[in-house]
Amino acid sequence: MVDRAQDKRVAISRSRPGDGFIVLPPSEEPPLREDLAFAVRPRIGESVSGDGVLVQHFGGVTWLVVVDGLGHGPPAHEVVVRAGALTEALSAELRTEGAMGLLHDALRGTRGAAAMVFRIHEGAIEGCAVGNIEVRTIGAQIPMVSRSGVVGKRLPALRAFHSNAVRGMRAFVFSDGISRRAPFADLARLAPQAACDALLDGHRHDHDDSSVAALYFD
């Protein structure tokens, strides 16, 4: 990757014969812009959800955490409530494996959860996953590695995965309350919040809580 601050290359262009050469400054692309939205719904017949999404910003660092508490109803919702303690522990300097460890500590004594943690900084994506939270991407790939286990109960050896966002990339992070067969590529043409709402309106499983986060880079 080129460090723009150290990039001394210049573009050279000839204007007209006999005019010599014109030295142009290096072209600078605007920084990637992140647009993030999410939606959560409880299982039909329940008033609270065992799924939850946490988003926090620290300067140029964005944290995205998706949690799916085991089961449904109030006991699963308690997992989401306890996961909220992570808001006091996240920081710009923390890495995803450390964040997952902190989430594990916060969920001790609960049913436990599947979870995925993303840290995004200047287009660099770092993630860590335990259990059946999934990612679908359009425009680029995220080489996701998810470990078997239950956050709060049995935390496996963690392994972070990494990717670099590109302009036009779309990523959907979702629990198993969303169908894997949803038309993510088609829905990615919608604005992030509209895409999340459409997934819950037309592609969720009624027997389970559901959650999805949409992360766009432009």
Q: Helix and strand layout, with pairings?
A:
Blueprint: E1 11-14, E2 21-24, E3 34-41, E4 51-58, E5 61-69, H1 73-83, H2 96-106, E6 113-121, E7 124-130, E8 134-138, E9 146-147, E10 161-164, E11 170-174, H3 184-187, H4 192-202, E12 210-217
Parallel strand pairs: 7-9
Antiparallel strand pairs: 1-2, 3-12, 4-5, 5-6, 6-7, 7-10, 8-11, 11-12
Short description:
With 218 residues, the chain is of the alpha+beta class. The chain is 17% helix and 33% strand.
Task: Please tell me about this protein's structure.
This protein is of the alpha+beta class. It has a single domain, classed as Phosphatase 2c, domain 1 (4-Layer Sandwich). It is built from four helices and twelve strands. It has helices spanning 73-83, 96-106, 184-187, 192-202; strands spanning 11-14, 21-24, 34-41, 51-58, 61-69, 113-121, 124-130, 134-138, 146-147, 161-164, 170-174, 210-217. The strands form three sheets. Strands 4, 5, 6, 7, 9 and 10 form a six-stranded mixed sheet that branches. Strands 3-12-11-8 form a four-stranded antiparallel sheet, with helices on one face. Strand 1 (11-14) and strand 2 form a beta hairpin. The longest helix has 11 residues, at 73-83. It starts with 10 loop residues before the first strand and ends with a strand. Residues 1-22 have low confidence and may be disordered.
